[in-house]
Write a structure and sequence with these properties.
CATH class of the largest domain: Mainly Beta
Bound molecules: calcium ion
Shape: globular
Strand content: 35-45%
CATH architecture of the largest domain: Sandwich
Helix content: 10-25%
Mean pLDDT: 85
Number of domains: 2
Order of helices and strands: HEEHEEEEEEEEEEEEEE
């Protein structure tokens, strides 16, 4: 009798430890296995085309669309193909796996495709998907990226920024008219992305961090720094709920390590317009190097 009681006691202790570990593990990992998610965008670059992408902040190809065989009025669906002739977007072999294709995005110091880039010493090359979420909706976003070994990090004392993914505003209304309501806030200045993944170094070590929140009235802030290695692939997963109110949130992971520690709540929309998803490199303050980043396996689910 005593023996069996002791056995039950030990069994219960073991059960407690095992279930404790299990719940801890679930808490820290993204919910990869959710069955109810629907894929709304997917890109692995194996079709060697960018025609599914709808947003390009890229210095256009040196040749005219006509000389490349495009009719800009008729070939809207081939806009991605057109931008593959720029110096910034290239579908290449994965440097670590010759059977895989990936997107190499390159920024030169002269790449200033967005209004105001030149005057604010910024440079960028970004591609994205427009309108991926309305107020109150949730999205799961995942992708892989690699910072190459030969990436030239700006001097740490420069305190500049390098954004490698952003969730930004969608600044056109659905009927195509320009929406200028954004200028009601922030005196017409460009509004910062409310969710952005930053890359940088600290004491020579590479790392990333998510910045979150509205720029106005409070500056958005870095949630957490996570150190990572160059020359290897890293997986990012984000879960966002869009809102102008405090029920908006983000939670995120790099290789299953949390970027946010827990769900972070707060407004992440300036207006009710749908959000954009963008990858690519967006740099501030006069960075004079040319740098590339690799991306693959982009997936947006709802
Ligand atoms: Ca691929
Ligand atoms: Ca494609």
């Amino acid at each position: 009798m005593k023996k069996s009681r002791a056995a039950i006691f030990i069994f219960l202790i073991v059960l407690l430890i095992v279930s404790g570990c299990a719940s801890k593990k679930i808490k820290q990992q993204p919910k990869e296995n959710r069955q109810d998610l629907k894929t709304v965008f997917e890109e692995a670059f194996e079709d060697k085309s960018l025609n599914e992408w709808t947003l390009f902040q890229v210095t256009p190809p040196a040749q005219s669309p006509e000389s490349l065989g495009f009719n800009p009025d008729k070939d809207q669906a081939r806009i991605g193909e057109y931008y593959l002739h720029s110096d910034s977007l290239e579908i290449v072999q994965d440097p670590l796996d010759q059977k895989n294709h990936v997107l190499q995005i390159t920024v030169h110091p002269t790449d200033t495709p967005a209004e105001g880039d030149k005057e604010k010493d910024k440079s960028r090359a970004e591609i994205g998907v427009k309108g991926i979420g309305e107020p109150g909706e949730e999205r799961w976003i995942s992708f892989r990226f690699m910072i190459p070994e030969d990436y030239q990090d700006p001097p740490e004392k420069e305190r500049t920024f390098q954004v490698i993914m952003q969730l930004h505003r969608y600044d056109k209304e659905k009927d195509g008219k320009y929406f200028d309501g954004l200028k009601l806030k922030n005196d017409g200045n460009t509004l910062s992305p409310t969710v952005s993944l930053r890359y940088g170094t600290e004491n020579g070590k590479s790392g990333v961090g998510l910045r979150y929140g509205l720029k106005d009235p409070e500056p958005n802030y870095l949630l957490k720094k996570v150190f990572m290695k160059k020359g290897t692939w890293h997986s990012i997963k984000l879960h966002v709920k869009w809102s102008q109110g405090n029920d908006g949130f983000v939670e995120g992971w790099i290789n299953n390590e949390s970027l946010t520690n827990e769900r972070v709540f707060g407004p992440n929309m300036y207006t009710n317009l749908p959000r954009d998803f963008r990858i690519g490199l967006y740099r501030g303050h006069n960075i004079q190097t040319t740098n590339s980043i690799y991306y693959d396996n982009i997936k947006i689910e709802k």
